[in-house]
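Practice problem. Given the sequence and the SMILES for fe (ii) ion, write out the predicted structure.
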Amino acid sequence: MLKVIQITDMHIMPNAGDALLGIATEKYFRKVLEHAEQHHPDTHLMLLTGDIAQTPVETSYQNVFAMLSEVQTPCRCLPGNHDDPALMQKIFNTAQINCNPIFESEHWQFIFLNSQKPKSAGGHLAEEELALLNKQLNLKKEVQTAIFMHHHILPTDSRWMDTMQVENHEHFIELIVPHKQVKTVVCGHIHQEMEKTQDGILYLGTPSSCFQFKPLQVEFALDDKPPGYRVLEFHDDGAIETEVVWLPVSLEELDLNSQGY
Ligand SMILES: [Fe+2]
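Answer key:
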């Protein structure tokens, strides 16, 4: 069994202590890391699925790198719409912490895709990302597969959020469905929990390590739920057990009247 912790949408600010919508994002990322370390010390791999930085400056990634180094669990990082992939690759560049797009073990492979659309908050899978996915799925037909990316493939049914859905999601779905080894597709970006099954594939969305968005809204709206993360257990026989863990805190300082982020 492989135990994985997914932490997403940390929105780390250029200066530690700076707040976004009233929330000191770095403080809550640290709390999430501590909670995961304390309750899941048997984790094999930790995944950061994008929007690691709010503005992609070197100091933000260096702060994250320092915090991850203390934890010592192997970490993979992929970019969100707020991130700078080249800067991430420069800083997350060790055996423990890196941006390698493939993780392989005996029973499972994980494929990490970049769903960034240049100059946009929305999602798109570029030809080279789809080519990498296709190649790996053809290469390892017998190995159970989980795919991770920042943006969502299936709609959340919040209209404002779904304007940012991976725009070529139909193409992606056509590509993966014939590959029966694909078991799950996991995203961040949506700042809420989502779990849907389509074509026998489990689609998961994970809350942010800072603030959350209210589900089923026409326009941007914040939720008062606490920071969270996801635990995934990938069993040798292909079974997946997963749960979202919510931190036992309440975000009193959240500016619920904000119009955007
Ligand atoms: Fe995002």
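Check your answer against the key. The helical segments are 25-39, 58-71, 85-91, 127-139, 159-162, 169-176.
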